[in-house]
Write a structure and sequence with these properties.
Layout lengths: L8 E6 L11 H14 L2 E7 L12 H21 L3 E4 L10 H4 L17 H22 L2 E5 L9 H11 L4 E6 L9 H8 L3 E6 L1 E2 L9 E2 L8 H11 L5 E3 L11 H13 L4
Length: 273
């Protein structure tokens, strides 16, 4: 469907179970890679929602260790898929979501990262330590850990994100920039300028500031992202990597139409039409 809609690449997501899960056999993962090649579409990145349950900054050590396991498995799966970057949530200070909003099949609410509030400085030190520990594994596998700016009350400015990435000191820990996630409290073009060469991958999303919470995420070109300024900022830093449409929530009817609408909007944003 993505190929038919005009997309050149697709981002897959690692789940706990299912066709691309934590315990999916390697042969089944490489079969997905081969399927994509046959279709003629590139698997450009690998995301996951598992960090909402298992956070790198959780107060419980067993949850932090579980998060580290997720990162390593995500790296391994990415390598099997031929993907050079994974999307990682660096941890949370706290979030406003309910467990069922993000992980509807969560068996254990205790494993939901947003059910606790972590001191900001503690979260920073824990995340930094974990990522420094994980960076050599990422380098060994040749897969970049892409840290996303996300609604986790953590790394809230481009200056802080820049300094955090630089403090890790590894080319295998970079930024997975989400254009829509900072619109509520900032401007994506500022983040692009400041993060510059640290940006490895990009998500396209749009957000309407006058809305409330998750309902503010709308179709591309229907929100408050200044797309002309965003593309100009990407041009200035010489970014020529992937941009993936992360659309949420899905349509109530004819859900496949969202994919075609997103593709058409991206063509216009990227000045292809």
């Amino acid at each position: 469907m993505a190929k038919d809609a005009g997309f050149e690449g697709i981002e897959l997501a690692l789940s706990e179970t299912g066709e691309l899960g934590m315990k999916t056999p390697d042969r089944d993962i490489t079969a997905i890679r081969d399927m994509a090649k046959e279709i003629g579409i590139e698997i450009c990145s690998l995301a996951t929602g598992l960090y909402w349950q298992s956070s790198l900054t959780a107060n419980r050590e067993d949850i932090r260790e579980r998060a580290k396991t997720v990162v390593k498995r995500q790296i391994d799966v990415a390598k099997l898929l031929g993907v050079d970057c994974i999307l990682v949530c660096p941890g949370t200070v706290g979030v406003d979501f309910r467990p069922e909003d993000v992980v509807p099949d969560a068996d254990n609410v205790d494993f939901f990262a947003g059910s606790e509030i972590i001191d900001y400085d503690v979260a920073y030190e824990r995340s930094q330590s974990m990522l420094k520990e994980l960076a050599p594994y990422a380098e060994k596998q040749g897969v970049v850990i892409g840290i996303e700016n996300i609604w986790n009350k953590f790394l809230l400015s481009p200056l802080e994100m820049r300094d955090f990435i630089d403090s890790i000191g590894s080319p295998f820990v970079q930024v997975f920039l989400d254009v829509g996630n900072m619109v509520l409290f900032g401007y994506p073009q500022h983040w692009i300028k400041i993060l510059n060469h640290r940006i490895k991958k990009v998500h396209f999303k749009d957000y309407r500031r006058g809305a409330n919470g998750l309902s503010g995420f709308v179709d591309l070109l229907a929100g408050d992202v200044d797309w002309k300024a965003v593309i100009e900022a990407f041009d200035k830093i010489g970014y020529d990597g992937w941009a993936s449409a992360e659309m949420c929530p899905t349509y109530a009817q004819y859900t496949d139409q969202m994919i075609y609408n997103a593709s058409a909007a991206m063509d216009r944003i990227l000045r292809r039409k």
